[in-house]
Amino acid sequence: MKVISLGMGVQSTALYYMSSTGELPRADVAIFADTGAERKESLEYYLFLKKWMRKNKGIPIYVANYYDIESDILESKNSTGQRFVTIPAFTLSGGQMRRQCTNEYKIKQVNKKIREICGLQHRQRYPEVELWFGISLDEITRIAVPWDKWKTNVYPFVGYSINYNSETIKISDMRLSRNNIYNWFKQNNLPIPSKSACYFCPYQNRHQWNTLCNDDFNKAIKIDDHIRDQSTRGIKEKLYLHRLLKPVSDIDFSDSQISLFDSDDECSGNCMI
């Protein structure tokens, strides 16, 4: 079974198009893990992509939306109803919380959708699955060993796959950078997706914060205010969504000061974006 991990960002969406049109081998399905806190632009692009799929006989797209990270954070719990899931929020001392959200709201949701698509019952084993990621050549350090024996992580844009035993296998001579992929969108007259991330993601750069729609920004403020004091959960330090250690509502994201802390990097290939 060949599954595209569709994060609705630039690379994974290009991977979907290329696989659908025959520029790459055709995957069986694409799975979009909706965390419940996707940016408005990503959700709008998903609707566009569904229309494109129907018109062009694209690879079937499934949405995995079993859990809602926004609701869970506001209710101070995780996807299983236990202690709240840790997002990589910044601590007052300058550290950062451990990131659990990728596993809780991306990886587990995709796994669950694969079981559903395959019609697996409780305790039935997964089939062998190739999980395709849109990691480009300039991000080759994001290649990761899968956590599960039944998975092989495939990276078509760099021409390699890697399995649970850390065996790296060359699958093609393809080598595409992010710029190559941007040019591909332009050459094919397709709209370029925005970078995908949860609207409150602490890894967002200034441009991403500054371009949040009003509704998403106001929801980010609500999340930021809510996580500040987690002393009842055993966390002694105050938490912030931004590395300036200020409330999001107090930060001017057009200020040049922010650029000192900026990065164009996205969170991680494991976030499936």
Question: Which helices and strands occur, and which strands form pairs?
Answer:
Layout lengths: L1 E4 L4 H12 L7 E5 L6 H17 L4 E4 L4 H6 L15 E2 L9 H18 L10 E4 L18 E5 L4 E4 L4 E3 L7 H10 L18 H5 L3 H14 L11 E2 L33
Parallel strand pairs: 1-2, 1-5, 2-3, 5-6
Antiparallel strand pairs: 4-9, 6-7, 7-8
What characteristics describe this protein?
about 270 residues; alpha/beta; 7-stranded mixed β-sheet; two-stranded antiparallel ribbon; 7 helices; about 10% strand; globular
* Rg for CA atoms: 19 Å
Unreliable sequence segments: 264-270
How many strand units? 9
Counted by DSSP, the helix tally is: 7
Measure the end-to-end span. Answer: 21 Å
Report on the structure:
The chain is an alpha/beta fold. It contains seven helices and nine strands. The protein has helices at 10-21, 40-56, 69-74, 101-118, 178-187, 206-210, 214-227, and strands at residues 2-5, 29-33, 61-64, 90-91, 129-132, 151-155, 160-163, 168-170, 239-240. The strands form two sheets. Strands 3-2-1-5-6-7-8 form a seven-stranded mixed sheet.
Give a brief rundown of this model.
The protein contains seven helices and nine strands; from the N terminus they run βαβαβαβαββββαααβ. It is of the alpha/beta class and 273 residues long.
